[in-house]
């Protein structure tokens, strides 16, 4: 509802003006003020969209009141009302940005014409403001999807060459030279926790939240130079744990090491997973730097055997997987390595197997020891149990897997390319993990899913550009982008020409 304030020291003038306007515009709300000082106060309390201001009033004049109100409320519009057709007054009013003026006495038709013109302008501005608000809300929603996709690409080595830099630019994190990953382990019934956690982290700022994989939630945190690494991480960990309904809920946070670029962030993620290998700590978080390590310069088993494990798991060769893992245990036992160090190395292997399964679309158990292991016999028994559970999950997955998944996804993207589509939403569509979908596009089609989505949008944009009635801005929103500058960057990256120049060449060729 539009609100209007009539300011005049003569009551009969105020009442007459209100009667004329109320009859013509019954849906606007009208209040009155009898002097400039009262008008200033009502500008605060009533918040009018338009003020009809008498110039000559005792005490604070109309022009003084306008100047005072505009300092705090620059969006309020003014029409001056005066019995004096004096140039100096009007010139001063124009300087203050007054929209129009009325002379006393005025015909009802003149009043309605002058006020109606300004009311139309106010309605149009309100409509545009609401459109901008909706667009901004849609843009923020799109950014949230972008964020989870960027984290997925960074942590699981499916980096999108064309878009990643632009997506990172969109997310607008303050410049920092250091970052680290926190891996939050949640209980099994975690579906209602994800939005609460994202809301908490949005409020805290300075981080990107990934998608929920099984029971683990990866978070990329950007270093705050005003705090030490440990104090920043502990503060965030405690804030996250405060989301729990009860201290007895089984949450745990692994905190990876600090790295100096996004290219190295996978290492911090790996470290954060290792930090969660044991969860029996009262404070419910652990730094990777606090994890016991084997002395010497021995390379991580994960780095040495990752490709071998990937091929074995992809082909379902679980006998070989089990033989390799048990071979590691036997080697460490023969070398006399303390059990605490061996179980740490073995849990690295189990985490590797879990992550590989996640990457091929299988959500499996979180490989954690269920009790404190005392000797190698107990370690072998516990590892056998964990491997058996993962093997069973692998078998169940492939029994349910549909051969036409990739066709379904392509069709869905082509039909819905104008909407916000993320790896996570595609995963929910076909019941697969975001990591697997990204990997499947790359392996089966030789293209990243964002490349395919972009192709669909750009082709649709090219068709829409044939219509001279549509602006570039309109086309931007129609094909699924929320920001014209970003659309232009993507179009030029893909087509090697700006949208404006493409359209110019298109029309030139047709003429």
Automatic annotation (TrEMBL):
One of its GO terms (molecular function) is DNA-binding transcription factor activity. One of its GO terms (biological process) is phosphorelay signal transduction system. Residues 407-505 form the HTH araC/xylS-type domain. Residues 112-145 form a coiled coil. Pfam families: GGDEF_2, HTH_18, Response_reg. Keywords: Coiled coil, DNA-binding, Phosphoprotein, Transcription, Transcription regulation. Residues 3-119 form the Response regulatory domain. The modification 4-aspartylphosphate is found at residue 54. The keyword Transcription regulation applies. This is DNA-binding response regulator. It comes from Robertmurraya siralis.
